[in-house]
Amino acid sequence: MGSSLAGQVAVVTGASSGIGRAVAKILAAEGCPVGLIARREDALRELAAEITASGGRAAVGVADVADRGQIESAVAAIRNALGPIDLMIANAGIGKPTQLDPVNITDVEQTIRVNLLGVVYTFATVMPEMLARKAGRLVAVSSLAGYRGLPGESAYCSSKAAVNVYLDGLRIHLRGTGVGVTTICPGFVKTPMTATNTFHMPGLMEADDAAKRIVRAVKRGKKVFNFPWRLHLMTKLSRWLPDRTIAWIMSDYNEQAATGVPKPPTL
Ligand SMILES: NC(=O)c1ccc[n+]([C@@H]2O[C@H](COP(=O)([O-])OP(=O)(O)OC[C@H]3O[C@@H](n4cnc5c(N)ncnc54)[C@H](OP(=O)(O)O)[C@@H]3O)[C@@H](O)[C@H]2O)c1
Questions:
Q1: Which residue range forms the structural domain that includes residue 129?
Q2: What is the pLDDT of residues 73-112, one digit of tens each?
Q3: What is the number of structural domains in the chain?
Q4: How far apart are the CA of 91 and the centre of ligand 1, in A?
Q5: Domain CATH for 63
Q6: How far apart are CA 136 and CA 88, in angstroms?
């Protein structure tokens, strides 16, 4: 995939809100026919109308990415409307605190299903056609949170760590096939997901800014794109910090989580 995306058919999951919505708008402005996937049909239709009114092309597919049948049908409908898919961006995700007593197993399961299996199912819908055409790019929006397990965020961090590793393997496995893989690991982005966070979010950026950086990384065919660089560096260094320091850094959040104040500190 070269530096221009014009004419490439792109699909974005989690396009009804936040980063996915902003990425879809930029891709449409760059000349990509865009397929928009999420569960909230009204929000998707509104975005599709906005894109069409600006002279772009868009198709909507309503699906829960954690449901294989639903994501397959949604992608098939978009393929029928827009043609073979060149770029698949698996961005849909959720963040819920991980509790200790009792362990909120249902939330943990849902986090792994949506954040990890959602990516696997989404990629599987386009892998055969991309391999047959010897072209395409698979992109997942993961997180810097995948580089360090954080107290109260075990499920989210592990789901993103698994995405990073799954994509590492996939990228190497797909060498020479013409199909590229890009892992995107953002820091804090202002979206509904982080809207209830009350703690300081270093390097917090607007969704439009994050989306511009993501599209640029996709155009350049980056393997892994971590941003912003300062928070990436801090996250990498945090791997060498003792547990007590991480516990101290996260103490505010964990205290609030323990008292039941709903505030997922997702990044
Ligand atoms: N915001 C941050 O600071 C940040 C930082 C690093 C990484 N990320 C990652 O960026 C991605 C987008 O997050 P965001 O911040 O833009 O959050 P957001 O505004 O809450 O958007 C999440 C999107 O995912 C969709 N979604 C959630 N569960 C879904 C499901 N089961 N099936 C289909 N779609 C589903 C939502 O649509 P519906 O509700 O309509 O289904 C929505 O469009 C996530 O993977 C998140 O982990 C976010």
A1: 10-258
A2: 999 999 999 999 999 999 999 999 999 999 999 999 999 9
A3: 1
A4: 6
A5: 3.40.50.720
A6: 8
